[in-house]
Write a structure and sequence with these properties.
Length: about 100
């Protein structure tokens, strides 16, 4: 079982979303990343190139970018954003233009 940690930037990203959206994202994180966070699935995959984080979790239009420290079994949530039209946004700003 992996421990989930959210970075300060990840926490700020989460605060941007409405409460019900936060609940959807948190439920997906707990369900998908507590066990086997490095097993690729349709909605969980390694990023190429890994600009912000090595891994991405797809939750509808939401994206959770995370890293995994296998030796201590910690999943670190780096950023949480939206990808409504194939463009990634963090707090309404296009990724790369922070």
């Amino acid at each position: 079982m992996y421990t989930i940690e959210i970075t300060p930037t990840g926490r700020e990203d989460m605060r941007y979303f409405r409460k019900y959206e936060q609940n959807i994202i948190i439920e997906a994180i707990e369900t998908q990343l507590t066990y086997q966070p490095t097993v690729e699935t349709t909605n969980r995959f390694r990023r190429n190139p890994p600009e912000i984080a090595d891994w991405e979790l797809r939750v509808g239009d939401f994206r959770v970018l995370y890293n995994v420290e296998e030796s201590v079994q910690i999943v670190s949530i780096e950023r949480v954003g939206e990808k409504p039209n194939n463009e990634l946004y963090f707090r309404e700003k296009k990724a790369g233009r922070q």
